[in-house]
């Protein structure tokens, strides 16, 4: 298969609040050039406040392809934000209909919108009219009280008719009462078969599966039944997994950077970002899993956990670590 026909979304890294910020995304782009990356969820209110827009939407060009995930429930506001996202050069507009946190529920968006498929359809339609970018929806297989396969198929049918380009389905329901967001990532059982059934019912609609996928062997198995895979926590805990993503999923022959080369590139990045007020720990907090499962992983985590918060720390911290030769 030629590289040009393999879509970026074949493999993607999930949007994760407080985790997938621009520094994490730059780090991951050193490991994989082709994987589709997502921003953290950005609310429409944050974007439409012009004084803070740059704070939420800025990114390094190297991060592309990059999807902007929006949180909101007002079709007009979402459409305006989608247009702004296109103006900023994002690759995709994604609507968050899966987050189960109390903060999201209080704003009447996220997973609770699965109770209102017609509203989500209106959101999709409004964004489609405002931008030429793909408009996608990330959602759960259901929520408490609307968690049957028939409910899921009805929801997908409704947003498909509104013109959604792709959907990403987290294969757990969201329990909005009684479970924390962390518990919602673990307690509800995974129901991959439901996602596979969505693909059978809507063969022309690209379906991306998410939830509990920890390695590329599992990803390849899922791809026998759906179009693509999104990985979340495993991408954060074991980021070097993605050093082989371009060869595994995009037929690239480049073996990618070594861990040491990644660190040297990050040192250059930290030096550049220092002019914007970025501290070393803003970047290196995302990198602590780089040696996951390897000799020296504990020494690596301990060194940076202890030293990256100092007031006079700069990019030389990375060179100082590499001189120790403990990994």
Automatic annotation (TrEMBL):
<dbReference type="GO" id="GO:0000049">
    <property type="term" value="F:tRNA binding"/>
</dbReference>
<keyword id="KW-0819">tRNA processing</keyword>
<feature type="binding site">
    <location>
        <begin position="210"/>
        <end position="212"/>
    </location>
    <ligand>
        <name>FMN</name>
    </ligand>
</feature>
<feature type="binding site">
    <location>
        <begin position="232"/>
        <end position="233"/>
    </location>
    <ligand>
        <name>FMN</name>
    </ligand>
</feature>
<keyword id="KW-0288">FMN</keyword>
<keyword id="KW-0547">Nucleotide-binding</keyword>
<protein>
    <recommendedName>
        <fullName>tRNA-dihydrouridine(20/20a) synthase</fullName>
        <ecNumber>1.3.1.91</ecNumber>
    </recommendedName>
</protein>
<keyword id="KW-0694">RNA-binding</keyword>
<feature type="binding site">
    <location>
        <position position="138"/>
    </location>
    <ligand>
        <name>FMN</name>
    </ligand>
</feature>
<feature type="active site" description="Proton donor">
    <location>
        <position position="99"/>
    </location>
</feature>
<dbReference type="InterPro" id="IPR001269">
    <property type="entry name" value="DUS_fam"/>
</dbReference>
<dbReference type="GO" id="GO:0050660">
    <property type="term" value="F:flavin adenine dinucleotide binding"/>
</dbReference>
<keyword id="KW-0560">Oxidoreductase</keyword>
<keyword id="KW-0820">tRNA-binding</keyword>
<dbReference type="GO" id="GO:0102266">
    <property type="term" value="F:tRNA-dihydrouridine20a synthase activity"/>
</dbReference>
<dbReference type="InterPro" id="IPR018517">
    <property type="entry name" value="tRNA_hU_synthase_CS"/>
</dbReference>
<feature type="site" description="Interacts with tRNA">
    <location>
        <position position="185"/>
    </location>
</feature>
<dbReference type="InterPro" id="IPR013785">
    <property type="entry name" value="Aldolase_TIM"/>
</dbReference>
<feature type="binding site">
    <location>
        <begin position="15"/>
        <end position="17"/>
    </location>
    <ligand>
        <name>FMN</name>
    </ligand>
</feature>
<comment type="similarity">
    <text>Belongs to the Dus family. DusA subfamily.</text>
</comment>
<feature type="site" description="Interacts with tRNA; defines subfamily-specific binding signature">
    <location>
        <position position="298"/>
    </location>
</feature>
<dbReference type="InterPro" id="IPR004653">
    <property type="entry name" value="DusA"/>
</dbReference>
<comment type="function">
    <text>Catalyzes the synthesis of 5,6-dihydrouridine (D), a modified base found in the D-loop of most tRNAs, via the reduction of the C5-C6 double bond in target uridines. Specifically modifies U20 and U20a in tRNAs.</text>
</comment>
<feature type="site" description="Interacts with tRNA; defines subfamily-specific binding signature">
    <location>
        <position position="301"/>
    </location>
</feature>
<dbReference type="InterPro" id="IPR035587">
    <property type="entry name" value="DUS-like_FMN-bd"/>
</dbReference>
<feature type="domain" description="DUS-like FMN-binding">
    <location>
        <begin position="13"/>
        <end position="321"/>
    </location>
</feature>
<feature type="site" description="Interacts with tRNA">
    <location>
        <position position="96"/>
    </location>
</feature>
<dbReference type="Pfam" id="PF01207">
    <property type="entry name" value="Dus"/>
</dbReference>
<keyword id="KW-0521">NADP</keyword>
<feature type="binding site">
    <location>
        <position position="69"/>
    </location>
    <ligand>
        <name>FMN</name>
    </ligand>
</feature>
<keyword id="KW-0285">Flavoprotein</keyword>
<comment type="similarity">
    <text>Belongs to the dus family.</text>
</comment>
<feature type="binding site">
    <location>
        <position position="170"/>
    </location>
    <ligand>
        <name>FMN</name>
    </ligand>
</feature>
<dbReference type="GO" id="GO:0102264">
    <property type="term" value="F:tRNA-dihydrouridine20 synthase activity"/>
</dbReference>
<dbReference type="GO" id="GO:0010181">
    <property type="term" value="F:FMN binding"/>
</dbReference>
């Amino acid at each position: 298969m030629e590289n040009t026909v393999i879509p970026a979304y074949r493999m993607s890294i999930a949007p994760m609040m407080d985790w997938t910020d621009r520094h994490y995304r730059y780090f991951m782009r050193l490991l994989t050039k082709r994987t589709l990356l997502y921003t953290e969820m950005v609310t429409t209110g944050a974007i439409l406040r012009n004084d803070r827009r740059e704070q939420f939407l800025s990114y390094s060009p190297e991060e592309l392809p990059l999807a902007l995930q929006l949180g909101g429930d007002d079709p007009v506001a979402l459409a305006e934000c989608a247009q702004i996202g296109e103006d900023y050069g994002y690759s995709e507009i994604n609507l968050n209909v899966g987050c189960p946190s109390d903060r999201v529920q209080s704003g009447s968006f996220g997973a609770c919108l699965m109770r209102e498929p017609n509203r989500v359809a209106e959101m999709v339609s409004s964004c489609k009219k405002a931008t030429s970018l793909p408009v996608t929806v990330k959602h759960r297989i259901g929520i408490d009280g609307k968690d049957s396969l028939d409910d899921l198929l009805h929801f997908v049918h409704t947003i498909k008719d509104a013109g959604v380009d792709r959907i990403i389905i987290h294969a757990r329901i969201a329990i909005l009462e009684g479970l924390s967001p962390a518990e919602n990532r673990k307690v509800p059982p995974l129901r991959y078969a439901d996602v596979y059934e969505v693909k059978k019912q809507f063969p022309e609609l690209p379906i991306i599966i998410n939830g509990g996928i920890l390695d590329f062997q599992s990803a390849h198995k899922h791809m026998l039944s759906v179009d693509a895979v999104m990985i979340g926590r495993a991408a954060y805990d074991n980021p070097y997994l993605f050093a082989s993503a371009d060869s595994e999923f995009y037929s690239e022959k480049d073996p990618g950077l070594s861990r040491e080369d990644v660190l040297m590139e990050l040192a250059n990045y930290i030096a550049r970002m220092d002019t914007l007020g970025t501290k070393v720990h803003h970047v290196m907090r995302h990198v602590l899993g780089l040696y996951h499962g390897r000799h020296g992983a504990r020494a690596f985590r301990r060194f940076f956990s202890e030293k990256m918060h100092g007031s006079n720390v700069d990019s030389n911290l990375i060179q100082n670590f590499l001189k120790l030769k403990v990994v």
